[in-house]
């Protein structure tokens, strides 16, 4: 999931980072690179707490959603990629019925692209992409 983050630098201070899609999630760093690294950790920690409390995991918005807001004026925007699959809950086994040819195509894609690993992971990634949860 890509989360837009807004980075501000006041003279003589660290880089401050705000994550607009995750209320209360922010971080800082003494360099731009450190700030981006620290906000990655902050997002993951925040999502872990939300998951533990049974709260919904917020989805990332587009940069356009926030770029004109006064609170983020003069900020530098970046996108932080966070794998949210670990925060979506425990894996559950289900039965799915699909046409044979479709299953064959899925299996071929899994065989050709090691990033899928197996049929279940392929279907999960396809569902997440369709639902905008990537």
Secondary structure tally, helices: 3
CATH class label of the largest domain: Alpha Beta
What is the residue-mean pLDDT, rounded to a whole number? 91
Level-2 CATH architecture of the largest domain: 2-Layer Sandwich
Helix and strand arrangement:
Layout: E1 2-9, E2 15-18, E3 26-29, H1 32-52, E4 76-81, H2 100-112, H3 119-131
Antiparallel strand pairs: 1-2, 1-4, 2-3
Structural write-up:
It is a single chain. The protein has 3 helices and 4 strands, in the order E-E-E-H-E-H-H. It is α+β, with helices and mostly antiparallel strands and 134 residues long. A 4-stranded antiparallel β-sheet has the order 3-2-1-4, covered by helices on one side.
Kindly summarize this structure in a few lines:
By secondary structure, this protein is an alpha+beta fold.
Give structural attributes.
4 strands; 2 domains; 3 helices; alpha+beta; 134 residues; four-stranded antiparallel beta sheet
């Amino acid at each position: 999931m890509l989360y837009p983050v807004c980075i501000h630098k006041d003279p003589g201070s660290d880089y401050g980072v705000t994550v607009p899609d995750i209320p209360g999630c922010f971080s800082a760093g003494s360099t731009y690179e450190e700030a981006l690294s620290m906000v990655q950790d902050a997002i993951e920690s925040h999502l872990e707490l939300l998951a533990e409390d049974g709260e919904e995991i917020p989805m990332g918005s587009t940069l356009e959603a926030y770029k004109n807001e006064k609170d983020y004026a003069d900020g530098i925007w970046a996108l932080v990629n966070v794998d949210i699959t670990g925060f979506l809950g425990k894996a559950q086994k289900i039965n799915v019925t699909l046409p044979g040819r479709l299953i064959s195509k899925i299996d071929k894609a899994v065989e050709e692209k090691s990033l899928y690993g197996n049929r279940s992971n392929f279907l999960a990634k396809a569902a997440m992409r369709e639902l905008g949860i990537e």
